[in-house]
Amino acid sequence: MSMGGILILAEHRDGELRPVTHELIAAAQGVRRSVGDRVTVAIVGAQAERFVRAVSVEGVDQVLTMASPQTEFDTDVAEAALAAAMSDIEPALILLGHTVDSMSYAAAFATRHGTGFATDVFRLDFDGGELVATRGGYGQKVNVELDFPGRRTVVLCLRTGTFKPDLKPADPAVRSLTASWPPARARFGPFIAPCATDDVDVSAVDFILSVGRGVGEEDNIGQFRELATLVGATLGCSRPIADSGWLPKSRQVGQSGKTAVSCKLYIAMGISGAIQHLAGMKHVETVIAVNTDSNASIFSVAKYGIVGDMFEIAAELRKQFA
Amino acid sequence: MKILVPVKRVAALEDDFQIFADGRDVDPECLNYDLNEWDSFALEQAVLIKEAASTDVQVVAVTVGPEPCDEILRACLAKGADRALRVWDDSMLGSDPIAIARVLAAVAGRQAPQLVLTGAQSSDHGHATTGIALSAALDWPHVAVVAGLKYAAGDARATATRELEAGLLQDVELVLPAVLTIQLGINKPRYASLRAIKQAAAKPIEVLALSDLGLAASVVGEAGSASRVRRMVIPEKGRAQMIEGTVQQKAQRLAQIIREYKAA
């Protein structure tokens, strides 16, 4: 591997630095000494310098601003910027978030430049001088350890919400870097906020009873809506339920739906625990999971687990509150 | 006009599973296979475009994998694909998504589709890599995690709606040919009728080897991959404290936790 340190591409959207950027800076600290002990954060965009202060935190040695024609993310521009920053820094490790923006270009970058590559990585180690990245496999039921033999540079997209940022302000060196921008092949439109379609906002409530695929069919939703009311909870759901149109999108908990920010008690019924769902609720203090599969990954974030049929448990619970 | 739909046979673990003797994968005896859920949405989108078209549209499903993967290709044929291709060679063992994408790019180069639609990720390993790596190998424009698509067969451009975090959406207009990776919920994938399943069973599956695609063994397998599986381990069980007993006892404990929370 190169000894040129670690390169991080800052992620920003709609004028805000995305929190994943600080998580990447935090992740870099654990492995920096093995790869040249230098962390560089590159910022791309027409107003790149706007984010310099936000990324100027302890653990960052250098900030690169790269003025591109576009203010917001563009796949080809991000790829070109990363290529320019890589040839400038010659990093051993490039850290990106496992986010929708990165999903749009990181694999293309790795393919074109012959770097090592892995996504949704939640642990980074060096073992005998070799980089080892750990990610989930088979629906998160196993941990898969990857290495990257013979690669000078490795690009890793790290799972969001995993590495805890430390935000003490600092004063890293700042310089600008120019890149040649590719002709635009795609036109990115404005951001469209999801439309508010329902009376509730699951990010604002403290007690959620969520149903997943285990509910089986639309006709079964009603009894869980009643159960939620009976126990004083707000009914939430996982993605497949909202995609099927059985409940509005505003009740969907997860990466592409709502994060249960205010929730203190979360009952997950018939939810296996896809990583995108866990992203929206794994922080909740008390999670109780009810699932027929004792290996369901929801049990890995739950405080209490019940292996059982959600309908049978619901029927008994109803009696308890009758 | 062709639409190419790369699909994957995904593996789900049975309740009891173990790591294989070499420590680098699970025992294949413990796996159940299916068509990747995300790919079924990509296939449906291709079939919807075909059904709405006034010109001739051919939907070509392709997978990279050994013979048992024919099963998912037959499922694609039953759900509306016109042709099915399978590429395999034992040298592909150990291929990561980037090596797989290189093989798919060679297929796309020969099929010359106007559009490649594939799942945004797979349900087993969730790399979210293959489609976008494929776009780079082809040097085509691309959009990832597409939750809406405005495109009619014959159009020179398409508008894909990408789904960002927290449900935020963004339209991206791009010139074709292009690669789009499809998100769940973009449509409602159909079930195959019994008649279609029977017909699909009789349809041919075209099988290609690496040499048919002009690829060397060195660009696939571990040699052609951007990562290598060092080992797989079963993680320590989560911290959930399991509530045991009869259904009634479990529900009583659940009710108690709810009451304690509400009283606090």
Q: Tell me the structural class of chain A.
A: alpha/beta
| Strand order of the biggest β-sheet of chain A | 9-8-7-10-6-1-4-5-11
Please identify the structural class of chain B as seen in this structure.
alpha/beta
What is the CATH architecture term of chain B?
3-Layer(aba) Sandwich
Mean pLDDT of chain B: 96
Task: Please describe what this structure looks like.
The complex is a heterodimer of chains A (322) and B (264). Chain A contains 9 helices and 17 strands. The longest helix of chain A has 15 residues, at 75-89. A 9-stranded mixed sheet of chain A has the order 9-8-7-10-6-1-4-5-11, sandwiched between helices. The model of chain A has no long low-confidence stretch (mean pLDDT 95). Chain A has 322 residues and is α/β, with parallel strands linked by helices. Chain B is globular and about 65 Å long. Chain B has one domain (2-219): HUPs (Rossmann fold). Chain B is built from 6 helices and 13 strands. Chain B is an alpha/beta fold. In chain B, helix 2 packs across helix 5 (194-202) and helix 3 packs across helix 4 (130-138). In chain B, the strands form 2 sheets. A 9-stranded mixed sheet of chain B has the order 9-8-7-10-6-1-4-5-11, with helices on both faces. Classes of the chains: A alpha/beta (322), B alpha/beta (264).
Layout: helices, strands, pairs:
The complex is a heterodimer of chains A (322) and B (264).
Chain A: E1 6-9, E2 12-13, E3 16-17, H1 20-29, E4 39-44, H2 52-55, E5 62-66, H3 75-89, E6 93-97, H4 100-103, H5 106-113, E7 116-127, E8 130-137, E9 142-147, E10 154-158, E11 173-176, E12 186-192, E13 207-211, H6 221-231, E14 234-237, H7 239-243, E15 265-269, H8 275-281, E16 286-291, E17 304-307, H9 310-321
Parallel strand pairs in A: 1-4, 1-6, 4-5, 5-11, 6-10, 7-10, 13-14, 13-15, 15-16, 16-17
Antiparallel strand pairs in A: 2-3, 7-8, 8-9
Helix pairs in contact in A: 6-9
Chain B: E1 2-6, E2 9-13, E3 31-35, H1 37-52, E4 58-64, H2 70-78, E5 83-87, H3 97-111, E6 115-119, H4 130-138, E7 142-150, E8 157-163, E9 169-175, E10 178-182, H5 194-202, E11 206-208, E12 228-233, E13 241-242, H6 247-263
Parallel strand pairs in B: 1-4, 1-6, 4-5, 5-11, 6-10, 7-10
Antiparallel strand pairs in B: 2-3, 7-8, 8-9
Helix pairs in contact in B: 2-5, 3-4
